[in-house]
Structures are given as structure tokens and as C-alpha cells.
Amino acid sequence: MKKLLALTLIASLAACGGGGSDTHTASSAPTMFAIDKIEALVGTLTLNGSDSGHNYQLMVSFTPAVASTNPVGALTNIETMVLREDGVVVEQDIVDELFNQSVRLASYSHATGQYTVYNDVATPGPQHVGTIGSKGTFVTYNNPNKTVVLRTASRTWSLDAAGDSQAMFCVNTVFQGQSSVSGSACNLIDAAGHVSARSMKITVNGKTLTLN
Q1: The domain containing residue 45 runs over which residues?
Q2: ∠ CA(154), CA(105), CA(173), 5° rounding?
Q3: Which of 52, 94, 120, 172 is 20 to 30 A away from residue 77, measured at CA?
Q4: How many domains does the chain have?
Q5: Between the CA of residue 15 and those of 76, 102, 198, what are the distances in Å?
């Protein structure tokens, strides 16, 4: 379950802000953080972690939109993901993501054929540390025809203090009907939304795998 969740949650990490900004200014003691300006992931990200004696490595690469005939339709980006356990590939996927600005509309998994529809809530403007809000819900179907519902989930965002000049912005996912299963995709940001680190936490039955 953790392996599949890792690939599900990485999409939130790849673009969990508002699309980024070309310029950034840091503050030594910011009172507000521009969570709507968080830089989207560009290039390749590698996260590592360990659990129950096993070492995990998650790699995701971001590719700008290209012409495609996949079921999602017009693309905003393509994410290629590979998860290794003790050096061996255990899960991999190519996911097409459709966005409208910072609002995720849908995604399509080439590995499973699964189609996810998002009722996404746009990330608001600058916020104080300690603030939380809704990121909406999503429903995953077995195919683009939406024949069978496989899972549903709700998402929230949170902004927590992380030192004098930084904060941790996380998108938190809870799967409905599976209270023991949850995950968070987080960005360590400054006041302007510049990202200095990304991480992920996946919890199943009280055991948490952290990737950073």
C-alpha cells in the first residue's frame, strides 16, 4: 500500500503551490508566506527513506506538455515516477496531469489505466503560519470511462513554522473509508514561496515512511 501511495502523493509534491514566481525575496522574520507562489517542480527530484529494514528511493521527473492522444486530453505536464526498494524497482508509472492554472483537473496513469478526477480548491494568497485550508477531494476510477470507483480522498493544506524565516507547506491526503491510510507532500519555503526542500510522509496502520 505504501508503494502505491508514494506514486499517488508525488503529484501533490510536484505542483502543490500556485505555479511559482520568477523572482523571490526572503525575509528574516516573515509574517506571511506566499503559498500561492510556491515553485513547481522542474527537472528531477529524488527522495530517500527507510522503513522496516528496507531502503526506499523515489525519483520523479517533470516534462513540459507535449502533444498526446491520451484520455486526459490537453496536458500541462507529464510526470515519470520510479520507486525502488533496496535498489530494485518495485513501482513505476508515467502520469499525465491536466491543470487549469494551479487547480488540478484530472490525471491518467499509463501503468494502471486509472483515471482520477479532482474537485480541487485553488491555493489562496499569502497566509500566516498555523493556517490550514481545504484542497478539495478526488475520485479515482478504473479507467477514463469511470466504470468503477476505486478510491476517494479528501485533501487539506497546512502551513507550519520551520525556523525564523521558513515554513513548511503540506498537502495532506486522507483516503475515505481507510482512516489508517494517509499521506503528506511538503515543501519547505521562504516568505516568497521559494522551495529549499521537499519531502513526503506516508502512514499505513500507524507506521510512517518518510521520504526526503
Answers
A1: 2-211
A2: 20
A3: 172
A4: 1
A5: 11, 8, 11
Predicted TM-score (pTM) of this structure: 0.82
Contacts of 201 (CB under 8 A, 6+ apart): 183, 184, 186, 208, 209, 210, 211
Question: C-alpha grid cell for residue 50?
Answer: 527507510
The model's pLDDT over 43-87, given as tens digits with 9 standing for 90+, comes to: 888 999 998 889 999 898 877 665 555 555 555 677 888 989 999
SS3 of residue 123 by DSSP: coil
The grid coordinates listed for 39 are 515553485
Cell numbers of 8, please? 499517488
Query: CB neighbours of 79 closer than 8 A, spacing ≥ 6?
Result: 10, 11, 14, 60, 61, 62, 63, 94, 95, 97
User: How far from chain centre, in Å, is Cα 24?
Assistant: 22
Cα–Cα distance, 29 to 83 (Å, whole number): 37
Chain segment 163-193, per-residue pLDDT in tens: 889 999 999 988 887 666 788 889 999 999 9
